[in-house]
Design a protein that fits this description.
mainly beta; 62% strand
Length: 149
């Protein structure tokens, strides 16, 4: 198991010097247990990106995430991870509160070379510290489809 983990770390480190994101910006939809709605991603330099998610489930929430992309597997695939925050109106059991929190994200994205589409799957846990406070997202796995330019 230690050798497997070391191989993954080495592969991620070596491929981290290559350009990972094959598009400048994309807009689409994300479906997840906590954050479901409209997503937009802008590439800063091919390896770094900023993503915004406007979630319309459990109230109205905005998530802003900084992400680092690294090429993996084969052409078109990238592994990404990052962190950011959220602000909005979280509804739980008919009780709506203003919330603020921090979020993390880790995922895998595939950009089809011939078609302007990008698909991703991710895990996005979060911790609200204002409003409905506490850890949320033990189960916030999501999938996104974006039109990429």
């Amino acid at each position: 198991m230690k050798k497997f983990i070391m191989a993954i770390i080495l592969a991620v480190t070596v491929t981290g010097f290559c350009s990972a994101q094959d598009y400048n910006w994309g807009i689409g939809v994300r479906g997840g247990a906590v954050a479901t709605g409209i997503t937009a991603k802008v590439s800063i330099d091919g390896q770094n990106a900023v993503e915004g998610i406007l979630s319309l489930v459990n109230g109205v929430n905005f998530y802003g995430l900084y992400e680092r992309h690294m090429p993996v597997i084969s052409s078109g695939f990238s592994f990404y991870y990052g962190a950011g925050g959220n602000i909005g109106s979280w509804k739980r059991h008919s009780n709506k509160k203003f919330t603020v929190g921090i979020d993390g994200i880790i995922g895998l994205e595939y950009k089809i070379r011939e078609v302007p589409l990008a698909f991703s799957v991710d895990y996005k846990p979060g911790l609200n510290f204002i409003g409905h406070s506490g850890f949320r997202g033990w189960y916030d796995f999501g999938a996104s489809v974006k039109v990429a330019f």
